[in-house]
Amino acid sequence: MASHHDVLIVGLGAMGSSAAYHLCRRGVRVCGFDRFSPPHAQGSSHGQTRIIREAYFEDPIYVPMVRRAYELWRELEREAATPLLLETGGLMIGRPDSQLVSGARASAEQYGLEHEILGCSDISRRFPAFRPEHDMVAVYEPRAGILFPEACVQAQLSRARACGAQIHSDEPVLRWQAGANGVSVKTERASYSADLLIVTAGAWARQLLAELEPPLVVERQVAFWFDPRSSRDHFSAANCPVHLWQFDDGRFAYGFPDLGSGVKVACHQQGITGTPDSLTRDVSAEEVEGIRSVIRRFLPDADGEFRSAAACLYTNTPDEHFWIDRHPLHANVLIASPCSGHGFKFASVIGEILADLTTGGHPSFDLSVFRTRWPLQPAARSSNSD
Length: 386
Ligand SMILES: Cc1cc2nc3c(=O)[nH]c(=O)nc-3n(C[C@H](O)[C@H](O)[C@H](O)COP(=O)(O)OP(=O)(O)OC[C@H]3O[C@@H](n4cnc5c(N)ncnc54)[C@H](O)[C@@H]3O)c2cc1C
Description:
Number of strands: 20
Helix content: 25-40%
Bound molecules: flavin-adenine dinucleotide
Low-confidence stretches: none
Order of helices and strands: EHEEHEEHEHEEHEEEEHEEEEEHEEEHH
């Protein structure tokens, strides 16, 4: 058995690296593990860019958390002396009664967030890259923007290392145990013990928490980069805010300005589901053609040469809210990470929340919506630790 730590972390992607960073800043002795070498392209935290936005259409409950997340990203940016967040403004575009537009508007109004409502012609006059349909409107929020996920994970890990964290890359955790005297994890190399365990394994959470049979669904998502075929300057960060679209009732798409690799566009959801080890990361020519129909409809000048694509994984809960809680059977095990495709922007604040929960602090957010909210399976109810 290797040396004893205060906290072991399984999974050092967005959430786990943030937890490591926030715990180490408080003097907690952390040892973290990842099955790959983060930042890597096998999980949920790659693909160059992630949207951060405050006018949260999904639920206003996220607004106080995302405001704190902005502060913490900026703090990390200063500490790591590297750019992590670029504010470009953001457009949520759809019909006025769509979940996207009405929800973003409700959050903005409830929290007094700076925003504007733009009609269809205002959108394309101010931002000529976009071609909304005649009955579409937009909520524009000036503070929305882009996080650079690989740089964020890298910065969290290097700051954690600088504060003394032990980071074990390419060392998958095979199993873990928890009991009254602490926790332990087993890898191919050794066993490790600590007072507490944090499971932030993203798409692999279901496997590590199999005893609970959590109803998590892993969904493959693909992002695509295209060269603009004309009007390249319309897609620069100065002229092209991050953008989300809701159309044909339930479909969502989103995109980013061209930061040098092309215009990034993707659909939200509607991906194939499976396990993280079985879902292909390859992208087919049919998929590239498929996204062009969205581009031609809403961003016609971006319909140029295909540059690249990346497959990535969502880990969805049934209600698409996060799962952040103590393990229902082991109070010394914390679970955080299945984030249903919208969690990256919160990684900074989720790390702080995990550090609070670990060190006896009280997070200043309403976390009730994120608790374990599905019945425990009989096998889990009758099992004992150790
Ligand atoms: C295409 C796409 C676009 C997205 N867009 C946005 C967006 O615009 N804005 C936004 O806020 N969010 C977005 N998200 C969601 C966001 O990226 C995720 O919620 C977030 O990255 C999840 O972080 P995580 O730490 O849970 O997972 P990950 O970063 O994948 O980390 C989990 C880690 O656990 C490790 N691991 C797993 N099992 C083991 C084991 N047994 N032992 C050791 N290590 C293990 C994995 O290797 C991995 O590194 C998007 C997601 C995708 C896929």
